[in-house]
């Protein structure tokens, strides 16, 4: 008599598939008729598999409302639920579940810093500023580096949401940190521009240009300054700023804008200058302004 083959149970197969990174297949195994039951360990395993291939609705179906989330695997179920809620933009519920996960004892190893960071960003999305600061403090206690990146992410998020006041509140924090200071070098100026306060923006950009900048950044700053002077109808100052921008960095977007700014605010443009700038604009793939520059060149010919 041939012996019966001893097939592994679905949970074991699913764990092997998850370990190999085949999350979708693990989900299929666990959702087969023979393996579905109310066992919390299998529900957690299925949620882990679904999270692996970003089936967040599946994660919510398995975990939302479950009473055992904090009791298994260091609260992994609570963490997966928080991630699922964040993914479907249920921000306030995500914040609450991230917060509850951080109170689980013993905590899931290595999760604390990035979980607090996710909590801070979800709270910002929800407009809950006090929880943002609380989560940010928790991030800093666990990992100053993660906290630095979180502050930068929060500032960019606030800028995307048009919340200039929040960006400006975070600027001093970013300036005091060596990591974010370089990455957010012009964020204050852009925030003032977004708020409509061009005078404060001008102050910030003129201060920036006095410091140590790469050629690309110096060109970008002077290009912005040229635009601000142009908006004030100070054509002489605008021309000088655009020329300084172009001289220091005649490449990329700022180079193209500076070249066009020179033409706009140069008064009587000689043919040689117009031709040189037209060729530059053509090379920088700005065909609309290049064509106009060639027209200016033709008009300037004797």
Which features does this protein show?
302 residues, mainly alpha, Serine Threonine Protein Phosphatase 5, Tetratricopeptide repeat, 0% strand, elongated, TPR-like_helical_dom_sf
Percent helix, as a range, is: over 70%
Superfamily (CATH H level) name of the domain at 190-302: Tetratricopeptide repeat domain
Largest sheet: none
Query: How large is the radius of gyration?
Result: 28 Å
β-strand number: 0
Strand-pairing-aware structural class:
mainly alpha
Mind telling me the CATH class of the domain at 190-302?
Mainly Alpha
Please identify, by name, the CATH architecture of the domain at 190-302: Alpha Horseshoe
Strand content: under 5%
Total DSSP helices: 18
Distance between the termini: 107 Å
Q: Spell out the helices and strands N to C.
A: HHHHHHHHHHHHHHHHHH
Name the overall outline. elongated
Summarize model confidence as the mean pLDDT.
89
User: What is the CATH topology descriptor of the domain at 190-302?
Assistant: Serine Threonine Protein Phosphatase 5, Tetratricopeptide repeat
User: Low-confidence parts, pLDDT < 50 over ≥5 residues?
Assistant: none
Q: Write down the oligomeric state.
A: single chain
InterPro entries: TPR-like_helical_dom_sf
């Amino acid at each position: 008599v041939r012996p019966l083959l001893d097939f592994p149970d679905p949970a074991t197969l699913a764990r092997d598939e998850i370990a190999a990174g085949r999350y979708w297949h693990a989900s299929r195994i666990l959702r087969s008729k023979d393996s579905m039951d109310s066992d919390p360990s299998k529900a957690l395993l299925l949620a882990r598999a679904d999270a692996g291939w970003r089936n967040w609705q599946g994660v919510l179906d398995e975990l939302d409302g479950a009473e055992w989330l904090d009791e298994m695997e260091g609260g992994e179920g609570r963490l997966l639920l928080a991630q699922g809620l964040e993914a479907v933009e249920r921000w306030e519920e995500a914040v609450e579940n991230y917060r509850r996960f951080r109170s689980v004892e013993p905590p899931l190893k290595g999760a604390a810093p990035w979980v607090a960071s996710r909590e801070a960003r979800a709270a910002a999305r929800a407009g809950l500023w006090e929880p943002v600061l609380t989560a940010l403090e928790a991030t800093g206690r666990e990992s100053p580096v993660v906290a630095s990146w979180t502050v930068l992410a929060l500032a960019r998020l606030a800028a995307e949401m048009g919340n200039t006041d929040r960006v400006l509140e975070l600027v001093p924090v970013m300036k005091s940190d060596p990591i974010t200071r370089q990455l957010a070098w012009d964020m204050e100026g852009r925030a003032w521009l977004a708020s409509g306060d061009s005078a404060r923006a001008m102050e910030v950009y003129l201060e920036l240009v006095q410091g140590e900048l790469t050629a690309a950044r110096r060109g970008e700053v002077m290009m912005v300054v040229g635009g601000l002077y142009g908006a004030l109808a100070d054509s002489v100052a605008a021309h000088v700023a655009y020329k300084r921008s172009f001289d220091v960095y005649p490449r990329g977007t700022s180079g193209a804008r500076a070249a066009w700014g020179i033409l706009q605010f140069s008064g009587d443009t000689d043919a040689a200058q117009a031709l040189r700038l037209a060729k530059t604009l053509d090379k920088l793939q700005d065909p609309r302004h290049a064509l106009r520059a060639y027209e200016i060149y033709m008009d300037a010919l004797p």
